[in-house]
């Protein structure tokens, strides 16, 4: 009886199985690696996209702050205008970089740094604008206060000027000569030149006006012009020259006769003015008014029969 020997499975078949198992494991590992790598890559793309969006928002905020600062109606210095132009140029450059799409990690870091620098600039720039606004407000308050002060000073000066004018007018009135006494005497002139008092109109040829000047310590000592106006019984001013004018109490008046006296404030000193009538005297009252220093000096009357 033949004995049948049992032989083992060839070794090379086992090796094939192990090899297939290793291949499967390697494939699974590769797939897992690729899956993880792809997931990380997707996460990185998402992160980059989010950072890009965040930077665009920050750039919009920075530009909005610059626009707001420019609407503050503050006059910028040359340096501030130059700094603002550089900032806007940098903003445009960053927008172009972000709009190109993909950014390397180095470009992203550089863009982030530049945005932070722009944020710092805008913070300082806004603070400078606010400082200028505050200074402008202070200057406005100071200007308004100065205007009020000037207005008050001007008003006070006007009042003082008015008071000074009024005082000067009062001084002029006070300094003007006034008669202490005034007498008007009609005279007859005889053939030998002798003069006698008369009361009849037909005999009278001239009027003698005698007056004294009231005591006046503030009147100017020296020569003073005296203007005489004589009004006849009919109320007509007697004049010999229609161009004979003078000013009294602010009005231009014609005068009958003009002369001068020397005033030295001597008490009781008598002054005489002789006026010869160019025509015959009429019956009735004649009024004689004296003027000096721009004001009425005194008035007298005389009646002729």
TrEMBL record:
UniProt keyword terms in alphabetical order: Coiled coil, Membrane, Transmembrane, Transmembrane helix
Membrane-crossing residue ranges in chain numbering: 17-36
Coiled coil: 45-177
Taxonomic superkingdom: Bacteria
UniProt name for this protein: Chromosome segregation protein SMC
Organism: Pararcticibacter amylolyticus
Taxonomy of the source species: Bacteria, Pseudomonadati, Bacteroidota, Sphingobacteriia, Sphingobacteriales
């Amino acid at each position: 009886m033949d004995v049948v020997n049992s032989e083992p499975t060839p070794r090379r078949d086992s090796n094939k199985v192990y090899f297939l198992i290793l291949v499967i494991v390697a494939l699974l590992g590769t797939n897992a690696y690729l899956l993880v790598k792809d997931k990380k890559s997707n996460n990185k793309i998402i992160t980059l996209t989010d950072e890009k969006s965040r930077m665009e928002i920050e750039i919009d905020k920075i530009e909005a702050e610059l626009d707001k600062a420019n609407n503050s109606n503050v006059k910028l210095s040359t340096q501030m205008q130059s700094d603002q132009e550089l900032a806007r140029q940098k903003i445009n450059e960053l927008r172009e970089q972000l709009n190109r799409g993909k950014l390397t990690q180095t470009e992203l870091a550089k863009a982030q740094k530049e945005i932070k620098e722009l944020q710092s600039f805008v913070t300082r720039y806004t603070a400078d604008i606010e400082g200028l606004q505050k200074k402008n407000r202070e200057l406005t308050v100071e200007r308004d206060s100065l205007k009020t002060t000037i207005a008050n000073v001007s008003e006070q000066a006007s009042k003082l000027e008015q008071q000074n004018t009024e005082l000067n007018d009062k001084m002029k009135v006070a300094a003007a000569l006034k008669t202490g006494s005034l007498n008007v005497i009609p005279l007859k002139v005889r053939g030998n030149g002798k003069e006698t008092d008369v009361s009849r109109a037909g005999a009278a040829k001239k009027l003698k006006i005698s007056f004294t000047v009231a005591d006046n310590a503030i009147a100017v000592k020296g020569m003073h012009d005296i203007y005489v106006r004589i009004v006849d019984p009919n109320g007509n001013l007697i004049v010999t020259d229609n161009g004979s004018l003078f000013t009294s109490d602010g009005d231009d008046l014609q005068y009958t006769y003009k002369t001068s006296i020397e005033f030295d404030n001597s008490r009781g000193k008598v002054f005489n003015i002789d006026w010869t009538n160019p025509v015959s005297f009429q019956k009735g009252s004649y009024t004689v008014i004296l003027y000096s220093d721009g004001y009425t000096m005194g008035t007298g009357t005389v009646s002729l029969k």
